[in-house]
Amino acid sequence: MTLPDPLLGADDPDVFRIVGCSGRSEWLLTADHAGRAIPGRLGGLQLSPAVLDTHVAWDLGVAELAERLAARLDAFLILHNYSRLVIDVNRPPGAPDSIVSHSDHTPIPANSQLSIAQREQRRRALFDPYHRRIAAELDGRQRRGQPSVLVALHSFTPVHSGQERPWHVGVLHGRDGRLARRLLRGLRQERGLQVGDNEPYAVSDDSDHTLVVHGERRRIPHVELEVRQDLLSSEAGQQEWAERLAVVLGQSLAEELPPLRHGAPPLG
């Protein structure tokens, strides 16, 4: 297959950014939707700057939360720099919502008539390098004998499709809920905090990539955390949630996680 010219130009940012490369703890944090960059050659996907400022294009507040949490945990953190509207790095390649033509009722005109070659170009340029880097970090830790616990960080809009979302934070997992159950218990001890168990989303092979591939299939402890975006709109809110999550995450590893329950589905 002959691909179009390279997607990224000299003036485009790097695919991802790493914070705490020398982090000594077991924590490995990811922020799949931290950025809103669009390759210059895509002409802003024919979207207005106002649209690109909204949750349609990225997870508001998650980059700031992730950096504060990484500092608190002495963790390795990788943040993707490009908008999920170009390609969603937390969707399996080829999934219907890997490259969307509509998002929360907002049309994405530049995505409506993409060829197979154009889709493949976006995957090779923006999806593959990010996940190769996560895999390389986990492989290196395994060789060094450094334990790894994967935490995928996201934020969610308070209202979606006209429906209010009451949760302050969601704790998400797929087949392996060992770490998630501990975090649920810890967060629910705080009075007034509404904690979603696989809410507002649930993890599945069809809807998620990062947690499934790098967590489940490697059989390392893992969890996805979703914090409501209005709670991350200020520096004070970002710091408050970084401190809260750091405490609960730390408590979750105070004792060994139980083994996978007998008869659980294979994670590969």
Task: Give the SSE map.
Blueprint lengths: L15 E4 L7 E5 L17 H4 L9 H12 L2 E5 L21 E2 L2 E2 L8 H29 L4 E8 L2 E2 L2 E2 L4 E4 L5 H11 L6 E3 L12 H7 L5 E7 L6 H18 L16
Parallel strand pairs: 2-3, 2-6, 6-11, 9-10
Antiparallel strand pairs: 1-3, 4-5, 7-8, 9-11
Helix pairs in contact: 2-6, 4-6
Fold and architecture overview:
The chain is α/β, with parallel strands linked by helices. Helices cover 30% and strands 16% of the residues. The chain has 6 helices and 11 strands. It has helices at 49-52, 62-73, 116-144, 178-188, 210-216, 235-252, and strands at 16-19, 27-31, 76-80, 102-103, 106-107, 149-156, 159-160, 163-164, 169-172, 195-197, 222-228. Strands 1-3-2-6-11-9-10 form a 7-stranded mixed β-sheet, with helices on both faces. It has a two-stranded antiparallel ribbon with strand order 4-5. A two-stranded antiparallel ribbon has the order 7-8. Strand 4 and strand 5 form a beta hairpin. The radius of gyration is 18 Å and the shape is globular.
